[in-house]
Amino acid sequence: MEQVIQALISGILSGGIYALISVGLALIFGVVGLVNFAHGEFLMLSMYIAYWVYYFIKLEPYESLLINLVLMATVGYIVYKVIMTRVLEADHSMQMLLTLGLSMVLQNLALMLFKADYRNVRIDITTDVINIGFTNLSTARVLAFIVAIGASVALYLFLQKTYTGVAMKAVAQDGKAAKLMGINIKKIYGQAFIIGTMLVGLAGVLMSPMYSVFPTIGANFSTLAFIVVVLGGLSSIPGAIFGGILIGIVESMAGYLLGPAYQQAAYFLLFILVLIFKPSGIFGRE
Question: How far is Cα 124 from Cα 241, in angstroms, rounded to an integer?
Fold first, then answer.
């Protein structure tokens, strides 16, 4: 029983990270209507930034958080202005091809510059453990979960309580009507893309002390993020939070009960079942 509870808690903590990666993707899809298959590569870039800042300047990822977010916001702005604006009105198939191409370019660029080596940020918090009763929790994972859920909730409140957030919701619901109401659609698109990129950048910072970084790590999490977003209901921020935690629990419990080889199979099975019985997602609208 104690091991089951340990696995359950570990799944919840991992799910917080999955949620943070996914809410940025959900925001971009919901507001911009853009299918961004390069989302995972932004995660990879953020992790490399955290690693190289630590390697050269000796700033731990948490200390270089502001640097990382500013750089990721710059990357998001450049990618949106130079690339994404050209396909905003195109079919989703064209958007997918473009972002898949961008994903491959970023992967191979990282491979050329940094080789295929696994690089690690090893700091004190990497090995720290919190003991609560019979459970042993990684301090880095607990901190990452708290920050991830806090950032996800802050994004939800931003969308509910601020003018820009409400404008994003209006654009997501009906872009033409929002434009008639005086909302600058292109500006809102750019802001949503930048915020989504910064959120995945924050996830990269939180993951740096726990995961090795290498050129294809983004692809591993990109597929998972798409599953989370679809499970939650595509553009639903609460759905992405719930879906991330659910996937984390399913993955962890499947690994404990069936073995690590069945972890991906378990959440893909859940994904298929949701698509069969509720194609719009758990929190999605019909």
Answer: 29
Q: What is the mean pLDDT of each run of 10 residues along the chain (286 residues)?
A: 85 92 91 88 96 94 95 96 88 87 94 92 85 81 92 92 92 86 90 95 94 92 90 84 92 90 89 87 71
First CA to last CA distance, the chain? 40
Closest CA to 231 of 285, 271, 273: 271
Is-contact 33 188, C-beta < 8 A? no
123: left (phi over 0), alpha (psi -120 to 50) or beta: beta
SS3 letters across 52-64: HHHHHHCCCCCCC
Do residues 40 and 220 lie in contact, with contact meaning Cβ atoms separated by under 8 Å?
Answer: yes
Residue reference for tokens 């595509």: 234
Query: Is there a contact between 48 and 110 (Cβ–Cβ < 8 Å)?
Result: yes
pLDDT attached to residue 284: 66
* Per-residue model confidence (pLDDT) at position 135: 79
How far apart, in whole angstroms, are the C-alpha atoms of residue 286 and residue 271?
17
* Cα gap 256→277, rounded to integer Å: 27
Give Cβ neighbours of residue 111 (< 8 Å, ≥ 6 apart).
Answer: 215
pLDDT at 88: 84
Alpha-carbon distance 194 to 187, whole Å?
11
User: Is residue 1 packed enough to be buried (19+ CB in 10 Å), middle (13-18) or exposed (0-12)?
Assistant: exposed
